[in-house]
Design a protein that fits this description.
mainly beta, SH3 type barrels, five-stranded antiparallel sheet, 1 helix, 5 strands, 4% helix, 35% strand, elongated
Length: 139
Amino acid sequence: MNKINLVTTPQMRNDFPQFQSGDTVNIHVKVIEGDKERIQQYQGIVMGIKGEGIGRTFRVRKISNGVGVERIFPIHSPSIAKIEKLKEGKVRRAKLYYLRALKGKSATKIKERISPEIVAPVKKSEPVVETAPVAETAE
Protein backbone atom coordinates (compact mmCIF):
# COMPACT_ATOMS: atom_id res chain seq x y z
CA MET A 1 0.00 0.00 0.00
CA ASN A 2 1.33 3.43 -0.79
CA LYS A 3 1.50 6.31 1.68
CA ILE A 4 -1.47 8.19 0.23
CA ASN A 5 -3.78 5.20 0.71
CA LEU A 6 -2.59 4.81 4.31
CA VAL A 7 -3.73 8.36 5.07
CA THR A 8 -6.98 8.43 3.06
CA THR A 9 -8.39 4.96 3.80
CA PRO A 10 -9.56 5.77 7.38
CA GLN A 11 -11.35 8.89 6.09
CA MET A 12 -13.35 7.05 3.43
CA ARG A 13 -16.99 6.22 4.13
CA ASN A 14 -18.85 3.10 3.07
CA ASP A 15 -22.19 3.61 4.82
CA PHE A 16 -24.01 4.84 1.70
CA PRO A 17 -26.08 2.78 -0.75
CA GLN A 18 -24.62 1.93 -4.14
CA PHE A 19 -26.01 4.24 -6.83
CA GLN A 20 -25.18 5.11 -10.41
CA SER A 21 -26.10 7.58 -13.15
CA GLY A 22 -29.84 7.93 -13.64
CA ASP A 23 -30.78 7.07 -10.05
CA THR A 24 -32.91 9.50 -8.06
CA VAL A 25 -31.29 10.23 -4.70
CA ASN A 26 -32.06 12.31 -1.63
CA ILE A 27 -28.95 13.79 0.02
CA HIS A 28 -29.03 15.09 3.59
CA VAL A 29 -26.38 17.84 3.85
CA LYS A 30 -25.23 19.48 7.09
CA VAL A 31 -25.45 23.27 6.71
CA ILE A 32 -23.88 25.65 9.24
CA GLU A 33 -25.57 29.05 9.58
CA GLY A 34 -23.91 31.23 12.18
CA ASP A 35 -23.55 29.06 15.26
CA LYS A 36 -26.43 26.72 14.35
CA GLU A 37 -26.25 23.54 12.33
CA ARG A 38 -29.17 22.07 10.43
CA ILE A 39 -29.73 19.38 7.81
CA GLN A 40 -30.86 20.38 4.32
CA GLN A 41 -32.25 17.85 1.85
CA TYR A 42 -31.33 17.91 -1.83
CA GLN A 43 -33.24 15.55 -4.12
CA GLY A 44 -32.41 15.01 -7.77
CA ILE A 45 -31.10 12.76 -10.53
CA VAL A 46 -27.47 11.60 -10.47
CA MET A 47 -25.88 12.94 -13.67
CA GLY A 48 -22.54 11.24 -13.25
CA ILE A 49 -19.87 9.94 -10.91
CA LYS A 50 -16.26 11.05 -11.32
CA GLY A 51 -12.94 10.19 -9.71
CA GLU A 52 -11.59 7.50 -7.44
CA GLY A 53 -10.65 7.14 -3.80
CA ILE A 54 -11.10 10.04 -1.41
CA GLY A 55 -11.63 12.52 -4.28
CA ARG A 56 -14.64 10.74 -5.77
CA THR A 57 -17.56 13.09 -6.54
CA PHE A 58 -21.04 12.85 -7.99
CA ARG A 59 -23.22 15.45 -9.72
CA VAL A 60 -26.94 15.78 -8.92
CA ARG A 61 -29.46 17.81 -10.95
CA LYS A 62 -32.89 18.98 -9.87
CA ILE A 63 -35.46 21.42 -11.23
CA SER A 64 -36.23 24.21 -8.76
CA ASN A 65 -38.91 26.75 -9.73
CA GLY A 66 -38.47 25.89 -13.40
CA VAL A 67 -34.69 26.37 -13.30
CA GLY A 68 -32.24 23.47 -13.47
CA VAL A 69 -29.82 23.39 -10.53
CA GLU A 70 -26.75 21.15 -10.46
CA ARG A 71 -24.61 20.48 -7.44
CA ILE A 72 -21.42 18.46 -7.04
CA PHE A 73 -20.97 16.45 -3.84
CA PRO A 74 -17.81 14.69 -2.63
CA ILE A 75 -18.91 11.17 -1.69
CA HIS A 76 -16.66 10.91 1.36
CA SER A 77 -17.43 14.40 2.71
CA PRO A 78 -18.25 14.64 6.43
CA SER A 79 -20.88 17.29 5.58
CA ILE A 80 -23.10 14.60 4.01
CA ALA A 81 -25.22 13.09 6.78
CA LYS A 82 -27.12 10.53 4.72
CA ILE A 83 -27.84 9.46 1.14
CA GLU A 84 -31.10 7.70 0.25
CA LYS A 85 -31.67 6.02 -3.10
CA LEU A 86 -35.32 6.64 -4.04
CA LYS A 87 -35.50 5.22 -7.59
CA GLU A 88 -33.20 3.31 -9.89
CA GLY A 89 -33.04 4.77 -13.38
CA LYS A 90 -32.27 2.87 -16.56
CA VAL A 91 -29.92 4.90 -18.76
CA ARG A 92 -27.34 4.00 -21.41
CA ARG A 93 -24.83 6.74 -20.63
CA ALA A 94 -22.36 7.26 -17.79
CA LYS A 95 -22.74 11.04 -17.87
CA LEU A 96 -26.22 12.51 -18.39
CA TYR A 97 -25.20 15.96 -19.61
CA TYR A 98 -27.94 15.83 -22.26
CA LEU A 99 -30.47 16.51 -19.46
CA ARG A 100 -29.33 20.14 -19.48
CA ALA A 101 -30.93 20.73 -22.89
CA LEU A 102 -34.26 19.10 -22.03
CA LYS A 103 -37.26 21.07 -20.80
CA GLY A 104 -40.33 20.14 -18.78
CA LYS A 105 -41.19 16.61 -17.80
CA SER A 106 -38.61 15.04 -20.10
CA ALA A 107 -35.82 16.67 -18.05
CA THR A 108 -36.80 14.66 -14.97
CA LYS A 109 -38.35 11.55 -16.49
CA ILE A 110 -36.00 8.56 -16.73
CA LYS A 111 -37.04 4.96 -17.31
CA GLU A 112 -37.12 3.00 -14.09
CA ARG A 113 -34.84 0.01 -13.75
CA ILE A 114 -36.45 -3.10 -12.29
CA SER A 115 -34.31 -4.74 -9.62
CA PRO A 116 -34.11 -8.53 -9.45
CA GLU A 117 -35.31 -8.31 -5.83
CA ILE A 118 -38.51 -6.58 -6.92
CA VAL A 119 -39.49 -9.01 -9.66
CA ALA A 120 -41.41 -12.00 -8.32
CA PRO A 121 -40.29 -15.38 -9.62
CA VAL A 122 -42.55 -16.84 -12.28
CA LYS A 123 -44.15 -20.08 -11.16
CA LYS A 124 -44.20 -22.82 -13.73
CA SER A 125 -47.61 -24.38 -14.06
CA GLU A 126 -48.10 -28.13 -13.98
CA PRO A 127 -48.59 -29.62 -17.44
CA VAL A 128 -52.21 -30.47 -18.10
CA VAL A 129 -52.69 -34.13 -18.89
CA GLU A 130 -55.60 -34.72 -21.18
CA THR A 131 -57.34 -38.05 -21.05
CA ALA A 132 -59.03 -39.65 -23.98
CA PRO A 133 -62.82 -39.56 -23.79
CA VAL A 134 -64.27 -42.79 -22.52
CA ALA A 135 -67.25 -44.15 -24.40
CA GLU A 136 -70.25 -44.78 -22.20
CA THR A 137 -71.75 -48.20 -22.34
CA ALA A 138 -75.46 -48.71 -21.86
CA GLU A 139 -76.57 -51.78 -19.99
